[in-house]
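U., I forgot to send this yesterday:
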Amino acid sequence: MNPDVAAMVRAWPQYAARHDPAVLDLMMLRGREQASKLGFVTETDIGQFLECILLCNDDLVGPNSVSMDVWYTLTTQGKPAPMRLKRALTLSQRIAETRYKLGAAVSPPRPAPVASPAASPAIPAAGIASPAAAATGELVIDGFTIMEKVAEGGMGEVYRARDNVLDVDVAVKLVRELKPEATERFLSEARAAAKVQHPNIVQVLRYGHAPQGCYYVMQFIKGMDGEQLAAAFKSNEAATKSAGEVLKIAGTDSGSFLPELQPAMAHPQPYYAIIATWIAMVADGLERAHAAGVVHRDIKPGNLMLAPDGRMMLADFGLAVRADQRYLAGCVGTPRYLSPEMLACWAGCSTASGLDERLDIWGLGLTLLELLVLRPIYDGPMERVLRDIATIDPPLARQLNSSIPPTLEAICAKAVERNPSQRYAHAADMAAELRMFVSIVTPPAPAAETENGKATGIFGWLRKKP
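Result:
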């Protein structure tokens, strides 16, 4: 038996027994690698770190971890390792005890779920790798040739692959966690994404299991994501460029622009009009997802992909939930794009079943604002980011860049209202006003006040706040 596994069995038998031995062995091997990366070198420190791994169900995968407070305790600079580990172990034990009481700890091992045509027609079952491939650790999927790894995050890895039958490139997202709860979560992600068919949503094509974990196959978008676009636009001063130059910086194909981009290209401020058009496209996809009962919960620039024809697409439904599901607020998404109401649920360790699609409106509003001002809205150490989200309104766009059109600033402000009831009720409403901005260079005067003190009409609320 692996000595680390034996140590966990002695120290925490009630939790170690809830894992399949092979899974526990893999958890300890990965834990040692992670401990080394975090600078824990003595056997005592490594042992305590592995205890945290066990108690947190191997969720210590980075800053987007479910056990986020433990992760930041472990990675806080300036404190001795023993002090950090002692506090992290105390927090991990509380998490384990809470999960055990809630029945959310790892269940006894059972066969991994396999999609069937009757239960999930959109995600057919797939072949798996050969024993030889499994022995080498190489990712092999029947019918596909793995070309290269293109992304890696807290939850999984993304590869570019070739469909050997259709002779087209696809993307393969792999999650290496093997415990049953992770398998179920990943299958839920694939089903949520496959449930929504829309031109502005990256489509899921297939789901399956490999020796390394679960995976799904989706469209491969050959282009930059929102974070990469923001960096390219900032370094090239795109806001001062012509429409053609903006799209060239973005890496789009000049010979196949979507017709929807034409009004933006003719706008006197093309950069801002193009950004507005792209966000409107994503809002269209979100509207379809919300209509299907799916809330994304992790809208951010990194989850937006620009196709060569200039079409902006929404990807990665890793935290998506269906309307008929209850979920714990611990799965919070990327912290600096976390909505105030989701942060409140997470801080209170409560369920977030009462929250709705306006979570996504907040994320889309922050994404729009970030692409306009080309800097993160909430930035810095995690403690400051969370505090600022809880206490400070996002800045008005023109406070950071006076060249941004006032109308576009007002649309941003409405999308990131701290009170969800004051945001757009639907993504389609936000899309409509973004397109109105693109099509109407000089917006109409504010509409008349109603008896309730609120303006009517599409641009009725676009007025200066007192």
